[in-house]
Design goal:
CATH architecture: 3-Layer(aba) Sandwich
CATH topology: Oxidized Rhodanese, domain 1
Number of strands: 4
Number of domains: 1
Radius of gyration: 13 Å
Number of helices: 6
Order of helices and strands: HHEHEHEHEH
Helix content: 40-55%
Largest sheet: 4 strands, parallel
Structural class: alpha/beta
CATH superfamily: Rhodanese-like domain
CATH class: Alpha Beta
Oligomer: single chain
Shape: globular
Distance between the termini: 23 Å
Strand order of the largest sheet: 2-1-3-4
Amino acid sequence: MFRAMVVFLASALLSACGGSSDTGKLAFSAVQNGALLVDVRTAEEFATGHLPGAINIPHGEIVQGLAALDVAPSADIVLYCRSGNRSGMATASLTGAGFTKAVNAGAYSALKPVWDLGG
């Protein structure tokens, strides 16, 4: 119950923050607590660098990609991209498809220093 509350609060705060270092810390914490980390950039962008543990599903394929991986609609999912725009679109697509805990963590460049420091 406590873990669910922490993840819920992190999700709410991530949705409200939009790219600050606090958002990065919340995203890192959510991933450390089991959230799926998804880079929604292109495969080419992903190949140039990505956050440790991230999987790559381009934003336009996010619903089908998670379905192919059998990810439950209730799963905790943290999404990011280059600027936060595509991860925002992916979050909206997932919400429309019934995913209840998908959050936009924003830009890779803002998240990378947090991951480099270990949270």
